[in-house]
Amino acid sequence: MAVERLEKTLGKNKVLRGISFSAQAGEIFGLLGPNGAGKTTTLRIISTLLSADSGKVRVMGFDTRKAPEDVRRRVGVVTADIGVYPRLSARENIVYFARLSEVRETDVKGRVDAVIERLDIGSFADQRAESLSSGQKQKVAIARAIVHDPQVLMFDEPTSNLDVLASKEVREFMVESKGRGKCVIFSTHVMHDAERLCDRITILHEGQVVASGPTAEVRGSRLELEDAFLELVGAK
Amino acid sequence: MRAAWIVYRKELIEIVRDRRTLIAIGIAALATPIVLSVISQVASRTATQTYTIGYTGEIPVGLDVLFQATSLKLVQVVDPAVAAKQQVDVGVAFRPGGEIDEYYDPSRQGAQIASTRLETILGQYDAAQADAALRSRGIDPGILTPLHLVAHPLSSPVQAASNAFLSFFLPYILVTMILTGGFSAALDSTAGERERKTLESLLLTPAPRSRLLLGKIAAVTSISLVAAVAAIVSMFVALSQVSLPGRSGSNHITLNPVAIPVMVWVALLIAISFSSVTLALGTLAKSFRQGQAYVTPLYFITIFPASIILFIPDFNPNLAYYLVPILNAVLVLRDAIVHNAVEWPNLAVTTISLVGTGALSWYAALRLFTREALLTRS
User: Which CATH code fits B51-144?
Assistant: First the structure.
């Protein structure tokens, strides 16, 4: 997945000012930055929800402008907003997205059962989503994002509304996906999580890349990644 | 089209499980029979109710018998003018020499009805007295009525009353139920989707947005039609049970056969076009509540002209009136019910108008559904 000189203005606010980076299969790539740095806008452009003013994004060889539907077939996105359909069961939520993601009708049941087992959703799969806890809803949100087996997985602040246990499960899932050869993009402002999980990181500040490279390299000689981050964004 | 079908099925499941929509349809189905039952009872009671005439003086011979036959009860009072204010419906003072003073309060409906009956009775009494006096002198009473009017109604008076009743209520119920029946579902599938933060996930699927929107419109259209059918079926079930009093006794109300296909066609057109309108407005809203604020004025704007027209007797609109959405549907339906015939030019203009409204709304909804602000305005 490659991003080249991306620029984007929303209203009067220039959110992205020519950012570039790339992420590979089999790695967790961290997109770090304070709130308002442009992380979510970048992920939305990659997933074709927004279009860039200039610059280019390619996902597995597909240009987001020219082939948005091909890109969406290969991308799964998990956000902090755990929106599920409250009057559908957990299983029905996942089935709905499997079908919309063009999983063949004969494969839908098998795929859904597989993600339910993988994410340990079985005990509440047939409960209405409105009765689920935040952690359970987040599992459903992850399940619907991966049910079509995308090669690129994007996590946008996925643990910000979760408790400690649920957050741990999400982090474990990202590591597991990396082990399966997926390209995992992890957007966060929690430096501790990024330091533990990410192979490489890019730090955004005010719509610009202020540092990029392997996590250890960006941290340098500082004790923690957070120190490097604070220095880079001019807060220290 | 597979994506549209998938969305349609899912939306219907959610609608069926949504108490708000089911309650709206349930109320629609129950409200009509209840209203009709009340109307029927009030009408029957008014027709058979006994009204009281407070009087002073000597009652002319034979007049008391006529009073009893027409459910007017005579009560002697001290002052008929005072009694007519509250105690009785009409006050009457029989003076010597045949003069009668009548006192009644026109602001009281009962007083108006009693007064009309009183005038009728006195007219009949005068005619009978004149008839008897002329006959006793060997004169033909026919000289008092040199002209004889013989009425030949070209349609059944019962059917005419039935048509008048249906042409007033049926279009109103049909339009109201279509608009309100899909109201909640339309907002839930647009503003509600934004509010519960499922919209982004939906737009992340490879399904084209036009197909997603098509599925939603089809679902809202379906539920609008279900609401309308529930209201109309319940209305006809209620009409088969109740009757309205008429000159020839109690009359059941029946619908002209021509009106049924016209009603189905018009209902379908309104449901499709207004599903698109409400979805477009719902897409503009950030929450269900904001969506209600957008859609509620739409209901009043569309239903208001139709309501006014229904109160104008024998309103004969030209073809241009049939270009106004909703008003045209009400007029076409009224034509079919009253005249038992389809006015094809009117129906064609109505169809073009409603299809055009639907197409424009579809285009607007699609534009709104594909703009970036849908996600960034939060």
Answer: 3.40.190.10
Q: Which superfamily does CATH assign the domain made up of A1-74+151-236 to?
A: P-loop containing nucleotide triphosphate hydrolases (3.40.50.300)
For B268-294, write each residue's pLDDT tens digit: 888 888 888 888 888 888 888 888 888
Contact (CB<8Å) A99/B18:
no
Measure the CA–CA gap between B280 and B278, rounded to whole angstroms. Answer: 5
Residue of B nearest to A71 (CA): B206
Q: Where are the domains of chain A?
A: 1-74+151-236, 83-149
pLDDT digits (tens, 9 = 90+) for A129-180: 999 998 899 889 889 988 998 999 999 988 877 778 878 888 888 898 999 9
How many Å apart are CA A135 and CA B41, to the nearest integer?
A: 58
Q: How far apart are CA A159 and CA A166, in angstroms?
A: 8
CA-nearest of A92, A131, A86 to B196 is: A86
List chain B domain ranges: 2-42+157-376, 51-144
Give the CA radius of gyration of chain B.
Answer: 29
Residue B355 CA to residue B339 CA, distance in Å, equals: 25
Structure tokens that stand for B160 in this block = 């005419």
ipTM: 0.90
Calculated CA dihedral for residues B221, B224, B229, B231, nearest 10 degrees:
-170
Is residue B348 scored above 90 in pLDDT? yes
* B182 DSSP assignment: T
Q: Do B206 and A87 touch (CB under 8 A)?
A: no
Residues in A lying within 8 Å of B, measured between beta carbons? 10, 44, 47, 49-51, 69-70, 72-73, 75, 77, 79, 81-88, 92, 96-97, 99-102, 141, 144-145
A39 Cβ contact list (under 8 Å, min separation 6): A31, A32, A33, A156, A157, A187, A189, A204
Q: In this complex, which of B6, B14, B17 lies closest to A100 when CB atoms are compared?
A: B6
Q: Which residue numbers of B have CB closer than 8 Å to A's CBs?
A: 2-3, 6-7, 10, 13-14, 17-18, 196-208, 372, 375-376
B346's CB contacts (< 8 A; 6+ apart) are B319, B322, B328, B331, B332, B335
Q: What angle do CA A180, A186, A187 make, to 5 degrees?
A: 170
Q: Are B154 and B212 spatial neighbours (Cβ–Cβ below 8 Å)?
A: no
